[in-house]
Prior knowledge:
The chain is α/β, with parallel strands linked by helices. Helices cover 39% and strands 20% of the residues. It contains 15 helices and 20 strands. The strands form 5 sheets. A 7-stranded mixed sheet has the order 14-15-16-13-12-17-18, sandwiched between helices. Strand 10, helix 9 (240-250) and strand 11 (256-260) form a beta-alpha-beta unit. NADP nicotinamide-adenine-dinucleotide phosphate is lined by residues 157-162, 166, 184, 186-188, 215, 218-219, 222, 237-239, 242, 245-246, 260-263, 294, 391, 421, 461, 465.
Amino acid sequence: MTVAAGPTVLADVPKELFIGGAWRPAASGARLSVENPATGAPLCEVAAADVSDAIAALDAAADAQASWAATAPRVRGEILRRAYELIVARADELAVLMTMEMGKPLSESHGEIAYAAEFFRWFSEEAVRIGGRFGLAPDGGTRVVTTRQPVGPCLLITPWNFPLAMGTRKIGPAIAAGCTMVVKPAKQTPLSMLALATILVEAGLPDGVLNVVVAESAGATMGPLIADPRIRKLSFTGSTEVGRRLVAQSAQHLQRVSMELGGNAPFLVLADADVDAAVEGALLAKMRNGGEACTAANRFYVAASRHEEFATRFAERMADLRVGNGLEPGVQVGPLIDEAQRAKVTELVEDGRERGATVLAGGDPLDGPGYFFAPTVLADVPDDAAILGEETFGPVAPIVAFADDDEEGAIRAANATEYGLVAYIYTRDVGRGLRVAEALDTGMVGINRGVVSSAAAPFGGVKASGFGREGGAEGIDEYLETKYIAVDR
Ligand code: NAP
C-alpha cells in the first residue's frame, strides 16, 4: 500500500470527537486542520474540542468507571487481545495514515504500529495477573490482606512523534486495570488515535471507557479537567517544559501522575568497542523516527583511539540515507514535524559550527516543500555547544572525543545534563558495560544495542525526564491503587 491508498485511508477515519461511545462534532462547531509535513499541504480537518466537550468526555468516563471496574479482568484482557489482532490486520492502512500525518517513512510507521500493538497484547496478559496478598501480622492475630483496585478515571495526554504507540502504552494498562479515560492526542497527529478508537469499539470496548478529544488549545482545554477532582490519574508524554506545568496543576487534587518527558541521551563508544556494531547502533539510536524520539542519541562520546574510524564510517552511512516523502518506496528519512522544529535544528547546527565544530555530513535544511533537514554529523563539538545541552529532536549527531583512559570523564560528561531518560554504551567487555551502566543517571541503558524500547520492559526516566514506568510488569501499577484491609480473627 503506498501513495495511491492515501485518500481512501484518510476518508475512512472518523474526524469527530469520540465521547461516550458516539462520534460527535465539537459543541462550538470548531475544526482544526491536520497537515502533511512532507508537503506542507492540509490533509483534512477534525473537530476541535473546547472545555465543554472535554467535560462531556470526563462525564462519560466518570459514568462508566464503576461498571468498567467491575468487568471481569478476563473480559478486559480479551478486548485488548482483539484490538491487538485488529491493529496487526490493519497495519498497512494505519501505516499510510501515520506517514501522512507525521511524516516518518512507511517502514518506520510499520515498526511503530507493531510496537504499539504489542502493548495491547502484553497488557491483555497482565489484566488477569493483578494480585494481592494475605499475610500474618507480627502479633499473630491480625491478617494483612491487600488488594489492587483501579485508580479511577484517567487523563492521558500524548505527543505527535509516536502517534499510536504513546497512546497504546497508556490505554493498554488503563483498560487492563479497569480504568476509564479521556485521551488527548497532539493536534498535529490526531488521526492515528481516532483510527485506534474505531478499533477498540470493534474489539468490544464498552461506551464511555475511552473518550478521545482533540483540541486547538491544549492548555485551555485540559486545565479544567486537571482541576476536576474526578480525574484520579494524569499520564503525560511530552516535553519537560509542559510536564513541569502539569505536575504543578495536578497538585491541587493530588492526582496520581506519570511523566514521560524529554531526553538528552548520551551514546558512549569505549576504546574496546566493536566499531562496526557501534556504527549500526548509532544509526538506529540516532535516526529512528528521524531523530524525533525522546530516546534519540543526542550526544556521542567516543574514545579518542576509535574516534576517526567511528566518525568517518558513521558520517558515510548518514550521508547515504535517502531523505524524502515517507510514502515513496525506499525513503529512509522523512521530514521534521513542522517549520518551528526545523528552525530549531538549524539553529543548533549553526551554533555548533560557529563554536568550531566540523561538519562531516549534511549540515543544512533541504529545499522544496515539506520540512526536510539533511542527516548531519558534527565532529570536534566543543563542550559549550548548545546541541550538547538541548534535546535536538532532529537528524543531527554531534561527536565529542574523550581520552581512552578517561572513562570517568566520559561518565561525568554523560551525566552533566538535567535529563535522565536513556544512555547507550558500546564495549566488548560486558562487565565494564554493566559498571558504566550503573554509574549513569538514566532510567534505561542499552549495552551494545541502539534501541531499548519493548512492551515487556519498564520504560521511563529519572531527573527532568520524568517519573513512572510504562510497559513491563511495572506498567499496570501506574493505574492501580493498593488497598490494605486489616482483619482481626
Ligand atoms: P509537548 O509540546 O509537550 O506536547 C505533548 C502533548 O501535550 C500534546 O498533546 C500537546 O497538545 C499537549 N500539551 C501542550 N501544552 C499543554 C498544556 N498546557 N496542558 C495540557 N496539555 C498540553 O511535546 P511535543 O512537542 O508534542 O513532543 C515532543 C516531546 O515529547 C519531546 O520533548 C520528547 O522527548 C517527549 N517525548 C517523551 C517520551 C518519553 O516516553 N519520555 C516519548 C515521546 C516523546 P498539542 O500538541 O495539541 O498542543
